[in-house]
Design brief:
Blueprint lengths: L7 E6 L34 H7 L5 E7 L8 H15 L4 E5 L7 H9 L4 E5 L15 H8 L7 E4 L6 H10 L5 E3 L10 H15 L4 E5 L11 H15 L4 E3 L12 H12 L4 H16 L6
């Protein structure tokens, strides 16, 4: 079979300028617990020109900007920042915005975000680890979540697979809202038992038609990004959900801590090369276009 060489949509990437002081976790001296360990190397400006340079050799035609844990008191400010980048540089082509669904003003936040033409989805990391319930079980948070459908917004869910019982309830109770699972459910534990638990949790989640998956963010702490380490994750996810419900993404510049963008994209293409071209088209372009309405699908 032949590896994908056509146009790509990067379904999950970030731009930022830490010197503006809008991302507390990127401030000088800040050090939050981070799954890749020391992240000082990404405390630098990352703008469309940087991304284009990193993506040279891959035909990325559209990107999806995902919120960057901007100052939570000014979520709409981040959205306007991303929209201004699009007006100047042509990227991003869709925005996953920030909103704190358990706050008293959640309805107002969602209305303001939905009014920005590029906004397609909302991300707010709800926590939960399978032992302690996260916000997905909180009645106030769920009231905010219920308002997504009124604005035609999706929900980008970043949570570890151990919290998927809560995610299943969310998918079941709000079938009209599309959930986009970030980073393939964070399969950080690559032991045999860890991968078995991840696979079983993903299989249960795949039963819900309102789920889509981003295959991204698969770096491992202290290890360089290698296709052979991530082959089973990609192929198992596609087997469970089908290519038309999956999309490839870079998670750049965060995943630059693990490998170059060329290494990651070339690795994903090599892994997917044995799939039919129609399935590769869904993975690298069409699912993201359908979900985030980028480019010609907007």
């Amino acid at each position: 079979m032949t590896a994908w060489s056509g146009p790509m949509v990067d379904a999950h990437q970030h731009f930022w300028e830490p010197a503006r002081g809008r991302n507390p976790w990127l401030a000088p001296g800040a050090a939050i617990p981070f799954r890749y360990g020391d992240y000082a190397a990404i405390k630098r400006p990352y703008l469309p020109a940087d991304y284009r340079r990193d993506a040279a050799g891959h035909d990325v035609v559209e990107t999806v900007y995902v919120e960057t844990e901007w100052d939570p008191a000014d979520g709409i400010g981040e959205t306007r920042y991303a929209a201004a980048l699009q007006a100047e540089h042509g990227w991003p082509n869709a925005i996953v915005a920030q909103a704190w669904l358990h706050h008293d003003d959640a309805a107002e936040q969602l209305a303001r975000q939905a009014a920005v033409p590029l906004v397609r989805s909302i991300r707010h990391k709800p926590g939960g680890d399978g032992r302690t319930p996260g916000l997905m079980s909180d009645p106030g948070w769920r009231r905010g979540y219920a308002a997504l459908a009124r604005h035609g917004l999706h929900f980008d869910l970043q949570a570890p697979w151990q919290a998927f019982a809560e995610a299943e309830a969310l998918a079941r109770d709000f079938p009209e809202t599309l959930i986009v699972l970030n980073h393939a459910g964070l399969p950080a534990d690559r032991s045999e038992a860890g991968l078995r638990g991840w696979r079983e949790a993903m299989a249960r989640l795949s039963d819900h038609a309102n789920l889509r998956v981003k295959i991204s963010g698969l770096g491992q702490r202290g290890r360089p990004w290698r296709a052979e380490d991530n082959r089973a994750i990609l192929l198992e996810t596609v087997s469970l959900f089908g290519a038309a419900r999956c999309m490839i993404a870079s998670n750049f510049p965060v995943d630059s801590l693990c490998g170059s963008l060329d290494t990651i994209f070339a690795g994903f293409k090599a892994i997917a090369a044995d799939l039919p071209q129609a399935e590769q088209a869904w993975l690298f372009r069409d699912t993201a276009r359908a979900v985030y309405r980028t480019g010609g699908a907007a």
